[in-house]
TrEMBL record:
InterPro entries: LysR-type_TF_proteobact-type, LysR_subst-bd
Species whose genome carries this gene: Zoogloea ramigera
Domain spans labelled LysR substrate-binding: 7-149
GO BP field: DNA-templated transcription
Name of this chain's protein: LysR substrate-binding domain-containing protein
SUPFAM superfamilies referenced in this protein's UniProt entry, alphabetically: Periplasmic binding protein-like II
GO MF annotations in UniProt: DNA-binding transcription factor activity; sequence-specific DNA binding
Listed Pfam families: LysR_substrate
Record-stated family: Belongs to the LysR transcriptional regulatory family.
Length: 157
């Protein structure tokens, strides 16, 4: 974030590994992160990005890095969500991108005992240009967002 801006944290977020029920029926569910080598992994591409995913045990512990490959990549999480819903492979998505599809059964969590790390941030923020005073409307709107998002983005397990 540029030094000329200020960020207000609205809520915590997390990443989740997901796939469509159809994909898992065709290819099976991986038993652990290392098994992802035999799966189509839908990649979130950034400039100079590494083609691997990192995971840590949900209960804490050492991280593992897993090289990934797949038939589709994008730099847009909504595009990755739609590709996963279409059965193209496994995707790491932010909870706020995956929530509706998970609740509707279009996607299911994969490797729930492992947490993807490092691909997306761990908080959702409101960002504004810095100024010594904050307009009342901005203060009220951010307070409303914090209240609306205080529970974060609950996901089915």
């Amino acid at each position: 974030m540029p030094e000329t801006h200020v960020a207000w944290t609205l809520c915590e977020t997390r990443s989740v590994l997901v796939a469509s029920p159809d994909y898992l029926q065709r290819r099976g569910a991986p038993a652990d992160p290392q098994a992802l080598a035999g799966h189509d992994c839908l990649g979130y591409r950034r400039a100079g990005g590494v083609l691997s995913w990192r995971f840590e045990p949900a209960g804490g512990g050492a991280q593992v890095s897993v090289p990934t490959r797949g038939c589709f990549a994008a730099n847009n999480s909504e595009a990755l969500r739609e590709a996963a819903i279409g059965g193209l492979g496994l995707a790491v998505l932010s909870d706020f991108t995956a929530q509706r599809a998970l609740l509707d059964g279009l996607l299911v969590p994969v490797l729930p005992d492992w947490r993807p790390v490092g691909l997306f941030g761990d908080s959702l923020c409101a960002i504004r240009p810095y100024s010594p005073t904050v307009p009342k409307a901005v203060q009220v709107f951010v307070a409303w967002l914090r209240e609306a998002l205080k529970e974060g983005f609950p996901l089915p397990r």
